[in-house]
Amino acid sequence: NGIADDAIGNTKLDLTANYAFTGSITGTKGLINVSQTTNDNRVSLSEATSYNFFSFNYDQQKANSKIRADIHVVLWSDSAGTTRMRFYYNGSEPQTGRSPYTYTAQDYNFFIQGTYFFTGASSTGNKAVVFSHDAANGASQKPAQIFNPNHNDDARQNHHVSYITISEYDI
To answer: What is residue 107's predicted lDDT score, i.e. its pLDDT?
Structure first.
């Protein structure tokens, strides 16, 4: 059956055995869904009070599930000394300060990355997801010159792609 005890009584699973599964599993908890949204549009950013890097709908599978959002935004050539990154899910900001921005004053790629973990909406279906930047004081600004840089920005690189991966859990 692929399961055996070793000499000191530890149960081991033989992962080399071949197993087949037919039917369904009910009553289990764990990962429900994974969805990734990408953006590969190269954009020259202009000074503005805010800019949405992402705006899309996620189809939440279970009411009150746990949601993890992993964000990876690629930028080129710093522009502002500081800015605020904001993640919205279903019209609200579940957590703040989870996507840092670092000013380096260099004409190179840099990344905004963040991880958010929160309880999803109390209903299933499409939920609006937005990831943006703005200044807390409402000033016009831009965090970088280019969103999703490519070989035109630096001949040593390929075209970059930014993404948000949403994982939904029943735990």
So the answer is: 78
The torsion region of residue 99 among left (phi > 0), alpha (psi -120 to 50) and beta comes to beta
User: Cα(130)–Cα(108) distance, rounded to whole angstroms?
Assistant: 26
The number of C-alpha atoms within 13 Å of 161 and in the hemisphere containing its C-beta is: 8
Tokens representing residue 171 in the block: 């735990």
Mapped onto helix, strand or coil, the DSSP state of residue 92 is strand
Distance from C-alpha of 51 to C-alpha of 43, rounded to nearest angstrom: 11
Residue 114: the pLDDT is: 92
- List the chain residues with pLDDT less than 70: 1-27, 80-81, 102-103
Q: Half-sphere exposure (CA, 13 Å, Cβ side) for 134?
A: 14
Q: What is the pLDDT of residue 15?
A: 45
Distance between CA atoms of 125 and 57, rounded to whole angstroms?
Answer: 9
Q: What integer pLDDT is reported at residue 141 of this predicted model?
A: 86
43, 47, 71: which is closest to 165 by C-alpha? Answer: 71
